[in-house]
Model the fold of this input.
Amino acid sequence: MTTWRAASATNVGLVREANEDALLVTPTMAIVADGMGGHAAGEVASELAVSVFARLLVEQPSLARLNEGLLEANAAILADAQAHPDRTGMGTTLTAVMGVEYDTGTALAWVNIGDSRLYQLRDGAIKQITDDHSVAEEWVRQGRLSKEEAAVHPRRHQLTRVLGMEEAKDGDTGLLSVQVGDRLLLCSDGLSNEVSDAELAELASAPHGLEQAVDALVARALANGGHDNITVVVLEVESVSIEVPEQFRAEAPLSRASFAPASGPSQAAPVVRRSQRRRPWWMTWRSGAFLATLGGLVAGVFMVLSWYAHSAFYLADYQGSVTVYQGQPHGFLWYEPKVALQTVFKSSELLPGDATRLKNYISEPSLAAAIRHASNMHTSWVVSSPTPAQ
Ligand code: MG
Done:
């Protein structure tokens, strides 16, 4: 059997009023969940997820069951939210590592949904096993953002996969290839957002004892701001039951990236890769934002011009009738005035002064005012005209 020693802690942090994180550590299973949702719903979601997932996986610890555990936890959260409408929209991340039956022994498997994390540490070096399911991290994987840009990007907290969604999503799963003495660090983003990978490697690694490591990690997250709930689990592998076969290593994230040096994982990325990443980011994100802004400005200018061109009304003669036009007399730019209403009043049935003014256009602020003016002019002419002979 693969065995470990463990230490863990959870802390509300310095800003949040409640701790919505949940954790579970047993001799064969470690889980961290980071709940979200108002009115204490985040706490309900994370604790529900941990208990439902753990119960299913304790009964049948297998790699194939990991996603079933997530599906059941997802369903439990949705059912609870339906029974308690004030919890609608609650959700949680879940990151777990556990011994699973494999071949003739047990191997360590992991599962992840959301942005809590699992790291593996060996000889003072650190490697992130899980991928965050956030918009910013998805963009890193697509080459649109660098890791450093994602760390401060406004959409780093926007999750693409989480438990509690109407449409249940699979988590990522894999087997871990571990050696005796390896450490595993599970944490909520209250730790990983505050503490760099290099600091995590330094604080979580031997020779620090497990309890000492956990305390130091929480203390560092608090010292760096403690903006969120902080949950930390550190495991140290004591015995390895079975070697994970080579083909599994090829599929597992363990072999996709090499351990980064503890002195600075970010330096491990070659400069050329950073520039390759940066270019698409400029091509897509920033240039897209620029074009959208420019497009908005141009559309805004056109709207103002159009408003000005069509905001005015005036009276003029058209086919012998007093007619209301909409637009600027003589037009404005490419906007031509158009007939809004041809009145029944004849242009010839006006007092001489009004007839002259009509030829020079009579401006009015609105269609109603223009009609009223036309009517008044006609009335003036009727009143002043001699009564026709009967
Ligand atoms: Mg959090």
Observations:
- The radius of gyration is 35 Å.
- The chain has eleven helices and 15 strands.
- The pocket of magnesium ion is lined by residues 34, 188-190, 228-229 (CB under 6 Å).
- Residues 246-258, 260-284 have pLDDT under 50 and may be disordered.
